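Quick start: load a record and inspect it. Here is Phosphomannomutase/phosphoglucomutase:
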Amino acid sequence: MADADLSQLVKAYDVRGVYPDQLDEGLAELFGAAFAEVTAAREIVVGHDMRPSSPALSAAFARGATARGADAVLIGLCSTDQLYYASGSLGLPGAMFTASHNPARYNGIKMCRAGAAPVGQDTGLADIRARVEEALGTGLPASRTGRITTRDTLASYAAYLRGLVDLGSIRPLKVVVDAGNGMAGHTVPTVFEGLPVDLVPLYFELDGTFPNHEANPLDPKNLVDLQARVRAEGADLGLAFDGDADRCFVVDERGEGVSPSAVTGLVAARELARHPGATVIHNLITSWAVPEVVREHGGTPVRTRVGHSFIKQEMARTGAVFGGEHSAHYYFKDFWNADTGMLAALHVLAALGATDRPLSELLGAYQRYTGSGEINSTVADQPGRTAAVRARYADRDDVAFDELDGLTVTSKDWWLNVRASNTEPLLRLNVEARDAATMAAVRDEALAVIRADAPA
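Running the structure step on this input writes:
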């Protein structure tokens, strides 16, 4: 622990690394102490996912916090949005032990201030890291020992979510849910209890070794089982959650994947019906359709960088009612500006259950363009390759550039965005166009530049 490399462990928005090589109980205890100090908390709430290492790590974090005088409320097994619920409803800073969709050998910590306010590099995480670095090798002298209590928040979390969406008069729906052996297997049965839903569970057994497939629905190969089951069951839709169940992906009745941008548009329209004229946040690689739908429903779209810290900051700054990202993170003012895929899923159920139309038809109004999805390329010189992409289009009069997050190139018929990964030698490309042929041409041209050995 004394020689722990925090530069490899502390990311832009959270702490994440291999257990126990990079993150062990001793280090988790130091993070708990630092978290209590930086938040000046008298009490914190701590939860964890189903990974084998999570209970011990979360208990160590709580010990560290109590060594700095804070009381700790342990809520045990939970989804990340259930931890945000606990932080918001109890008014306490919180910590969630999870590595989300990462493989079993990983674990990590997502932290928030009271009211589920984000903790990222600019909002406390850098200070927490600095205090942990100071404590490495020196031990953890106690100032005043706080107490540890336990609390079950699952039932109240489920009731709170159901209270935000009118599901009382929806038609019966058959829904396949792929929990990926993650925390949705714990939360979905309670959240869906009493709803007119014929639930078909897929991989609900909690197993942090992920024996069936990675709990990462962003990768199409991890949706194959859900898509096949939806078709086999003749279900109305399918839902897929990631490991900590804060992201939700949707599959329609044909077994076709639904773009998170389409879900963002649908939920935005529903939230604007409740809050006329409100603001909706979207990141810069969601579909053109999202700001169009927001304006068509009388709202104000606000474009922001990718990443939950940026979204949450803009939600707070603008008073937005809702925010959506391409990665299937959905943020709600009614949920302390935090992200909850479960609430987005309930909105989809409510919208579908209020009509006799199939989901593919219902979502047609929100799927207007053709997107490439996110394509990653291993690139040593990320700035150089990004500059090469800009140079490729620099002489064209019909394009505009902006650098809000990476490089965005926009034409009347297409746009592309190239962003560098914060943690890996990768460039991430997203392309959208008015038709599939244009999208493919722009995608292939940009990839050729990004992946070229010589300067373009």
